[in-house]
Amino acid sequence: MTSPAEYAQLRAQLDTLTTEAFRPELAEIDRLSTLEIARTMNGEDATVPAAVADRLPEIAAAIDATAERMARGGRLVYAGAGTAGRLGVLDASECPPTFNTDPSEVVGLIAGGPTAMVAAVEGAEDSKELAAADLDALGLTADDTVVGVSASGRTPYAVGAVEHARAACGALTVGLSCNAGSALAAAADHGIEVVVGPELLTGSTRLKAGTAQKLVLNMLSTITMIRLGKTYGNLMVDVRASNEKLRARSRRIVALATGAGDPEIEAALAATDGKVKNAILVVLAGVDGPTAARLLDGSRGHLRAALHTALHTPPSQSG
């Protein structure tokens, strides 16, 4: 049970946070028309990309460090509570179909576990010990990257995750918050503080802060995957064709990358078990399926490198 003194201390902390600040000019927003409220909210949202832009050097540095470790077999792990935790789980869950990653490669941890995705789990976000236990269950290593996500930058679960990851095994740590001078950023190797200012509804950090976190997490995962060779230009050549829409997208990606006609595309996909990246190599380099697989293995999955090798290696050596 929290004591009156502890409540007073927490309130004092919240009073210092930009994300919790009260906006007097919006005190009668409920008296505006629906269209006026929508315009006001849209105007607030429009300020978020500029706040993210201010932190691009820090974001890029975190991505390069993450990609370096993932290239050695490390994992990307998000840890957060509430909206921040849900955004991490969302980003992680979209990596397998988009980049053909194993579900264990990008992981989202939310305080309170899967139940917390759809319902509040009281007290979970206040536990640093819970964060440590969740990370220990993953068997964390020094090649892993742990990203603590918290709008306030003070959430014990997120701060505890970063602290434990550094102390337990020397994992790379990133702290993503929306307040300057946050404990989360201070605890991490790479602090990213996207200051979006007070919310339309006081303290409702699922709004601008949530949007900022979504944008940064999109960058962390997407650009890391680009660095790891999961794309060819701006094409998702590692897409996993698990349904009809994605199978159609696979064929379209091969067509965009090669300019080949449908019969050649179908033959290339058939020769490579439907693997888009391999099929592109078959078409562009004129090699068979097994050779494409060997070339990609030799280039650690980077299609441009494999293509360069195929086109600059005598047939007797590449075939």
TrEMBL record:
Q: Which residues form the SIS domain?
A: 66-230
**Keywords for the protein's UniProt record, in alphabetical order:** Carbohydrate metabolism, Lyase
Supply the Pfam families for this chain: GKRP_SIS_N (PF22645)
Quick one: which pathway? Answer: Amino-sugar metabolism; N-acetylmuramate degradation
The EC number(s) this enzyme carries: 4.2.1.126
**Catalytic function, reaction form:** N-acetyl-D-muramate 6-phosphate + H2O = N-acetyl-D-glucosamine 6-phosphate + (R)-lactate
Q: Where is the signal peptide?
A: none
Gene Ontology molecular functions = lyase activity
| Gene3D superfamilies for the chain | 1.10.8.1080, Glucose-6-phosphate isomerase like protein, domain 1
Q: Specify whether Lyase is a keyword of the entry.
A: yes
What are the positions of the active site?
A: E94 (proton donor), E125
Keyword Lyase tagged: yes
Subunit text: Homodimer.
Q: What does this protein do?
A: Specifically catalyzes the cleavage of the D-lactyl ether substituent of MurNAc 6-phosphate, producing GlcNAc 6-phosphate and D-lactate.
Other comments?
Answer: A lyase-type mechanism (elimination/hydration) is suggested for the cleavage of the lactyl ether bond of MurNAc 6-phosphate, with the formation of an alpha,beta-unsaturated aldehyde intermediate with (E)-stereochemistry, followed by the syn addition of water to give product.
Family statement: Belongs to the GCKR-like family. MurNAc-6-P etherase subfamily.
Checking NCBIfam families in the record gives: N-acetylmuramic acid 6-phosphate etherase (TIGR00274), PRK05441.1 (NF003915), PRK12570.1 (NF009222)
Task: Supply the name of the protein.
Answer: N-acetylmuramic acid 6-phosphate etherase
What gene is this protein translated from? murQ
